[in-house]
Automatic annotation (TrEMBL):
<dbReference type="InterPro" id="IPR020904">
    <property type="entry name" value="Sc_DH/Rdtase_CS"/>
</dbReference>
<comment type="similarity">
    <text>Belongs to the short-chain dehydrogenases/reductases (SDR) family.</text>
</comment>
<dbReference type="InterPro" id="IPR036291">
    <property type="entry name" value="NAD(P)-bd_dom_sf"/>
</dbReference>
<protein>
    <submittedName>
        <fullName>Short-chain dehydrogenase/reductase SDR</fullName>
    </submittedName>
</protein>
<dbReference type="InterPro" id="IPR002347">
    <property type="entry name" value="SDR_fam"/>
</dbReference>
<dbReference type="Pfam" id="PF13561">
    <property type="entry name" value="adh_short_C2"/>
</dbReference>
Amino acid sequence: MTSLTKKKLAGKVAIITGGASGIGEATARLFADHGAGTIIIADIQDELGHQVATSIATPDCICTYVHCDVSDDDQVKSLVESTVQNHGKLDIMFSNAGILSKSDQTVLDFDFTQFDRLMAINVRGMVACVKEAARAMVDGRVRGSIICTASVAASQGTKRRTDYCMSKHAVLGLVRSASKQLGVHGIRVNCVSPNGVATPLTCGAHEKSVEEVEEIYEAKMVLKGVHLRAGHVADAVLFLASNESELITGHDLLVDGGFQP
């Protein structure tokens, strides 16, 4: 994992959606290790979110939990506004909240009810987070960093989970467009695209153990002898959030071990 000899986010204020578990939780802990002054964990898993925030908080790092369903525009707006009101600014938005398809639907058996729910979170929610974070950064004259969670499915077709694949293509399009529009304000917009990670969400979708899910995804990786973990993705997010990536925007950073479909 990343060396902690340098505090890359000293004094930064960050929001992490989907921060109560998986990639979001790993990123929150890494941000705290690297000196972030304030971390807001936003999620709908209230009990878990409070536990994670409490375990991260230190005298040097304020870490609080806020209930936020990203599919509700008003909740996202309130999340960002309260962060700025309470902490003076917003430097980093990690728009990470998302869900998987509930079934391996194809075009021939497409379920529009399921599609609408998934798009409300994975796409509409992502747009709301980028929009509200960008507005706060522009108003506060902050040269901020916005990072979205996409997927290897954002750049290729899939044989199943059609709705999920579509949603991640939309995220990549959002990042590429937003980066061009917000560059004039000094705001960088990027995304991370992991291969499958054995998070609680992924294991639940597959109805398999962590070990079984890791074997499924490693089989499609060129790089052998290593399992993709949430911490690997968190390292990539830290890079994109920090000044080490000062000239990187509109980029899709693959964290996939050389994924081959």
